[in-house]
Amino acid sequence: MVWQTIWGQIVDLSLVAVLLRLMTPILLASLGGLISDIGGVINIGLEGLMLMSAFTSIAVGSSTGNWAVGVLAGVATSVLISYGMGFFSLKMKVDIIITGFAVNIFGSGFTIFLMSKLYGMTGNYSPTGAPRIPVVNIPFIEDVPVLGKLLSGHSLMVWIALLSVAFCMFLIYRTPYGVHLRSVGEAPYAAQSLGIPAKRIQYSALAWSGAFAGLAGAFMSNGLTNMFVKDMTAGTGFLALAVVLLGNRNPIGILLGSLIFGLASALATIVQTVPNSPIPSQFIQMIPYVVTIAALVFFALRNKRRLATMP
Amino acid sequence: MKSSKALFLEVGGILAAVVTALICGFVVILLTSSEPFTAISALLLDPLSSTFNIGTILNKAVPLILTGLALSVVFQSGVFSMGAEGQLYIGAFVGALAAIYLPAMSPWIHFPLVIVCALLGGALFGMIPGVLKAYLNANEIVTTLMLNFVAILTTSYFVNNQLKAASGGGYAKMENISKDLLLPKIFPGMAAHAGIIIAVVAVIVVYLLMYKTSIGYELRLVGKNGHFARYGGIATRKVIVVSVMISGALAGLAGIVEVLGIHGTFKENFSASLGFDGIIIALLARNHPVGVLIAALFYAYIQVGAQTMQFGSDMPREVAVIIQVMLVLLVSAQAIFTYIKQRYARSGQKAVK
Known about the structure:
The complex is a heterodimer of chains A (311) and B (353). Chain A has helices at residues 2-11, 14-38, 46-64, 67-91, 96-119, 145-151, 156-174, 176-186, 188-193, 198-225, 236-246, 251-273, 281-309, and strands spanning 124-125, 135-136, 154-155, 228-229. Chain A is mainly alpha-helical and 311 residues long. Chain A has a single domain (2-309), classed as Orthogonal Bundle (ABC transporter involved in vitamin B12 uptake, BtuC), CATH 1.10.3470. A two-stranded antiparallel sheet of chain A has the order 1-4. In chain A, strands 2-3 form a two-stranded antiparallel ribbon. Chain A is globular and about 60 Å long. The termini of chain A are far apart. Chain B has 353 residues and is an all-alpha fold. Chain B has a single domain, classed as ABC transporter involved in vitamin B12 uptake, BtuC, CATH 1.10.3470. Helix content of chain B is 75%, strand content 0%. Chain B has helices spanning 4-32, 36-44, 51-76, 84-101, 107-136, 140-160, 195-212, 214-224, 226-231, 236-263, 274-284, 289-312, 319-331, 334-352. The longest helix of chain B is centred in the middle third of the chain and has 30 residues, at 107-136. The relative contact order of chain B is 0.20. Chain A binds chain B through residues 42, 44, 88, 91-95, 97-99, 101-103, 105-106, 108-110, 112-113, 116-117, 122, 235, 238, 241-242, 245, 280, 282-283, 285-286, 289-290, 292-293, 296-297, 300-301, 303-304, and chain B through 32, 80, 82, 132, 136-139, 141-143, 145-147, 149-150, 153-154, 156-157, 160-161, 276, 279-280, 283, 316, 318-322, 324-325, 328-329, 332-336, 338.
């Protein structure tokens, strides 16, 4: 029964669509996590940033009637909070992990606070007629049998996420900014002594991570569901942290990692909807976490061997 | 120059941070509420207005004290574990299994067995990230966060399937635990259960362990300066694993006390992020066991205050989040504390001249 459903979805390619949809927020958030990680300011506040952006995006989007304004407002909020993180961690010398932790509490609680103050709701807010992030139907290709289903009919944000991978490759490895970012992350004092403004680079790294987390959050409320549910990110921000390490801190690896995580949650959704499934959905949901731990162990062993064989 | 004056400055700084955080909360209330003074008084005074509310504060403080202790131990060894949540679930789960499925015996034997099972469950689950950190240098933040999900999902699977109570009425929970094993109320008629006694005992034990035994000394030394500790002949890896295991055991204890004191059985998703609240407590307390006790009581007081405020005014209880966030940020702002100490050091020098 389950196998037939899964096989059916693979054959008619609807699994691909689900996979891409579920992968997108993980991918975007992980790219944000990657840039801050490379800059040496690990952002564990992605979860909170995504929630703030998700709420702002749907609130502004539904009141203006324009999805683009909503998404921009969400991203702007997220970037603003990231600057706040920068202020507390770089200026007030709060440990960056603690800062991120605080942002997570803030994002979870403050969105519920705003929701109950602005709309009188405590669980979820689903405005009628909120504009959605549009779906891209590619002319001609959408009529081609297999290719049409593979390439056409995805949300615009799916394409933005995929393009962001290329953008991050370019930003990190092909621009002077990327060189500065990497050097600040590797050795901040050495970079500083060479005249690289380390603090400013780290502020900007946090801002980039805020921007990507903002896109991810906006997609969750304005693209995936068209509503805001309290704590709707449900650990995606933490998954993103794992994907950064799973992807061995490079954009292509992160794309692959996000695909694995997206696939696991797509399968879990299928298993949950099929009655009397022989595989418990909890174990499928667990796959990403176990894979991440296994990958961490693998990388650690490889590093150890590399250190041991060094002359 | 670690004198009583340094301690005084530290405590004074923390108190100032607490007051500032409260003021931030008040400002938000003033800006958004139509009856701000009712809300503020409901927040500050109502929690202390009845013995029932005071009992609720104590009950809320119990798991916070235990998770706060758990994290203060592991933070002292320099490991930034975020895994108390998962360890709490595993501890509570194993403890509840022992409470329900062990053959009938005298509660005087059974109760300690349940507690030991919970301690062991938490400790063994804590050992996983500990070993990964100590021997493979795997990032403990990510491994503990991942293991939290593993713990929550695994226990959720079991209470939804094999171990689901038939009488649960659709809820995912185990069979009810025998009344003999549940924690009694301290005073008849008061809400507070005996978990607070367990928590206070745990504070004393952890204090003795950390400051009066060699393992505690080694643990703190590894946290302060790992290279120096290793040079001094301390098996730093072993110490890290032990510290994460102690932390896991305390988190497991928090879980079983919550189950035996409040819920009466293991329920799916019963811990509303108690393990993460423990991080805040440990930060507020500067990882000191006595500080943990005070910080947890204060934190529980704010939580109950937020509830009474939601009940007695137009403010939602999430306002407390603003106070919590500002607390975390201000208390950990090293820049402020360094500034205070430098000011003091300078004025001290002048006094000598």
